[in-house]
Amino acid sequence: MNGTTGRLGAEWRPITGPCPRECDAPEGDLGAHRRHVVGRSEAGTAVGHQHVGTTMFRVTTSALVLVMIVTVITGCAEQPAKRKPPVDSVTAQRQMVDAVDDVTSHLGGTWKPRTGPDHAESCRLSGGEDGAQWVYLTGRTAGGDPERDAAGAADRWKAQGLNVERWGDAARPAVVGRGGEAVDSISLYAYPGNYTVQAVSVCFPGDADEL
After folding, report:
1. Deepest in the core among 88, 125, 134, 160, taking most CB within 10 A?
2. pLDDT digits (tens, 9 = 90+) for 4-37
3. Which residue range is the domain that position 161 belongs to?
4. Do residues 104 and 47 both lie within one domain?
5. Contact partners, residue 102, CB within 8 Å, separation at least 6
């Protein structure tokens, strides 16, 4: 090596020492031992040596960190959403009656119950168990503006977060709202001389035949 550096000129200094005799390795075995490397510095440029074993360690460590991050993210994504506990029969009925009173008070007139609010039917809870729900139907015979009344009810239910559907014509419109937390569904049939509002409560634990 002295002959080579002598021909290249300038001052050369050892960067890594030669491998001891007892650790002599084959010429291509860079992963096990260091080589005897010298270098020189000219015009601010340094020539150095990077140990292959150190590089492999850094790459392996980075890969392990990446695997751990992906595992944590995947674990969080796979956690099932928590289900809300079902309401009791009293709460379900109160929410249903409040929803009906809200729309009938804005429609005005005199309303009389036709079914319920203590009429129970069977349903299925979110976990698949048998449950019960209340049904409440009330009506009035006074006239009104069916198109305006149906549009007003639809706007109120949309503002409350319900998904609203409408069918029928302007003279006999019908609207229904679903998907709220207070009731399973609520509907208005704005027929001249026969307005009806019906609500179905959310499903709750219980037996409809025993209520």
Report:
1. 134
2. 555 555 555 554 555 444 444 444 444 444 444 4
3. 89-210
4. no
5. 156
